[in-house]
Amino acid sequence: MSYSFENLTVGQSESITRIVTEDDVHTFAAVTGDNNPVHLDAEYAATTSFGQPIAHGMLTAGFISAAIGTRLPGPGVIYLEQTLKFRAPVFIGAEVTTTVTVKELNERRKRAVLETVCTVEGKKVVTGEATIMLP
Description:
Elements: E1 13-19, H1 22-32, H2 37-40, H3 42-46, H4 57-70, E2 78-86, E3 95-106, E4 111-120, E5 123-133
Antiparallel strand pairs: 1-3, 2-5, 3-4, 4-5
């Protein structure tokens, strides 16, 4: 699905859902070099306040990029800015639902501000806003 600027409306939203796997976490660590043991070492993670390994916050935030690039507005969009607030940990095996909602439209510049929210079992785990430009 792909939206042009002309068919975006304030309040419009789209969602994607993804289950975080251990392979996702290890692949993200390998690609980025973020080998923090809280993500990769169950024994170490057990000694933390989380009690088990957690997914990288930026891995979860990456689902926002996927929602914007594939759903709303979709292919061809240019990501300009993103704010993020990490509100709760995401554990391996969690089903993350990412929703992007059109908050503001700037017709002159062909830009939009999107509310971005990732939830697990209805609880917000990552929130923020994205500014995007449409071709």
